[in-house]
Amino acid sequence: MTDSHVPPADPSTDRPALGMVVIGRNEGQRLVRCLQSCVREGAPVVYVDSGSTDGSPAAARGLGAAVLALDMQRPFTAARARNEGLQELMRLHPATEWVQFLDGDCELVPGWVAAAGAFLAGRDDVVAVCGRRVERHPEASIYNRLCDIEWNTPTGQASAFGGDVLIRARPLLAAGGYRDGLIAGEEPELCVRLRAGGWRIWRLGVDMTWHDAAMTHWKQWWKRSVRAGHAFAEGAWLHGAPPERHFVGETRRALLWGAALPLLLLGAALAWPPALLLFLVYPLQWLRVGLNLRRQGRPIPWTLSAFYLQGRFAEAAGALRFWWGHLLRRRSALIEYK
Known about the structure:
- The chain has helices spanning 29-39, 56-62, 78-92, 112-121, 142-151, 169-174, 186-196, 218-239, 248-271, 281-295, 301-327, and strands at residues 18-24, 45-49, 66-69, 98-103, 106-108, 126-135, 156-158, 165-168, 200-211.
- With 338 residues, the protein is an alpha/beta fold.
- The protein has 2 domains: 18-215, Spore Coat Polysaccharide Biosynthesis Protein SpsA, Chain A (Alpha-Beta Complex), CATH 3.90.550; 236-327, no CATH class.
- Strands 1, 2, 3, 4, 5, 6, 7, 8 and 9 form a 9-stranded mixed sheet that branches.
- α2 links the parallel β2 (45-49) and β3 (66-69).
- α7 (186-196) packs parallel to α8, α8 packs across α9 and α8 packs across α11 (301-327).
């Protein structure tokens, strides 16, 4: 993939001090590949472990990474892991200016850091740069394929980045870092605050990381979609007011198609059985979305449309789970799909 915004990378050019923060839990060989790709960049690496039982901390130390084991007496979130990893990196290397965050199931693509760094060095208004996350085994399951399609987002100025990103350390610290308590959606929530501070986020048209979703069962995909719905609802609660309207549309869409409409139609059918025919709105919606996806040139449009429609029910369950916990003032538990 190419992008006209990316200046040619010059390995001989001095770059600001770079550090890397990797988070993970029981990632096994995926973590080894991840850390090996980081070590090749010649920058210090901090690995943050959240209670692994597969020897991940020892493997990380063996590869030269500094290891920070989270105190599991406190609830674990990816946001908390990244924050504590950043703090440890800055303690060990106070001069760090750029941080490459990476999930432990990802591997840096050779050349990414050079290309992203060249772009970041030339744009003082840009706080963070991300690229294309590529699924390592999209052929292994339809769920991996769906992830690969999801990662293929438009390039240029973006509203948010994901778990893998090259970011300026000082503005991140000034913004307060990630929000520790979020169990999902912590990256776009941070981006709302960074953009409110006048910063821009950029997505380059170059491959950044290889990702291993390792999803082989429908139940895994369902849980991942429930987590997305939870993130939508919590994001809308935090930043749903104008002008941002963060995740408001996504939350409304999930609750409409996944909760309100089926309950309304079921109630109508109980009162008047022929109203069951109104459920045809769902196959019609599948057809409408599929046609739009095909016109856009998207891959597997009919399968994608079917999963989008199924996903509304999972997202609605996640949104309702957030609001129920919020009303009861209960902290949300992690929703893990693998």
